[in-house]
């Protein structure tokens, strides 16, 4: 027997089911079960920084406009790169936008997401295993 695959992505293939998604959303993340989920996972930019190793990130998504456009059917999870030092004030978007930048395993976030929005980040390679929609949002600075 030949075993094949990529261990990092085995979870995405073997656990891609409603039961796993429900358990992650409800028990591990305390997210609403009746909403579709958008994952925003951009990469970091090395030209924006406070000091060496502490990078800055300008959130180019207009969360107010996004919420108005997609309504109550969706929520958005932000997963910033670990080098980004920002702490976003999501208070005005409570119940719509959640910061999961420090969540340990991004594969869980892939699993519960109905759509990925990214830029140059390599996250789309792993997310593609789920065969779900992706949008590439690449604002120029």
From TrEMBL:
<dbReference type="GO" id="GO:0047355">
    <property type="term" value="F:CDP-glycerol glycerophosphotransferase activity"/>
</dbReference>
<dbReference type="InterPro" id="IPR007554">
    <property type="entry name" value="Glycerophosphate_synth"/>
</dbReference>
<protein>
    <recommendedName>
        <fullName>CDP-glycerol:poly(Glycerophosphate) glycerophosphotransferase</fullName>
    </recommendedName>
</protein>
<dbReference type="GO" id="GO:0016020">
    <property type="term" value="C:membrane"/>
</dbReference>
<dbReference type="Pfam" id="PF04464">
    <property type="entry name" value="Glyphos_transf"/>
</dbReference>
<dbReference type="InterPro" id="IPR051612">
    <property type="entry name" value="Teichoic_Acid_Biosynth"/>
</dbReference>
<dbReference type="InterPro" id="IPR043148">
    <property type="entry name" value="TagF_C"/>
</dbReference>
């Amino acid at each position: 027997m030949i075993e094949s695959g990529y261990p990092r992505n085995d979870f995405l293939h073997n656990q891609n089911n409603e039961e796993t998604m429900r358990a992650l959303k409800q028990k591990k993340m305390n997210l609403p079960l009746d909403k579709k989920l958008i994952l925003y996972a951009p990469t970091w930019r090395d030209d924006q920084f406070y000091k060496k190793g502490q990078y800055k990130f300008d959130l180019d998504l207009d969360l107010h406009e996004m919420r108005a456009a997609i309504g109550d059917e969706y929520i958005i999870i932000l997963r910033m790169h670990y080098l980004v030092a920002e702490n976003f004030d999501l208070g005005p978007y409570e119940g719509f936008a959640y910061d999961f930048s420090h969540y340990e395993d991004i594969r869980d976030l892939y699993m519960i997401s109905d759509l990925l929005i990214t830029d140059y980040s390599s996250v789309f390679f792993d997310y593609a295993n789920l065969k779900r929609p992706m949008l590439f949002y690449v604002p120029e600075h």
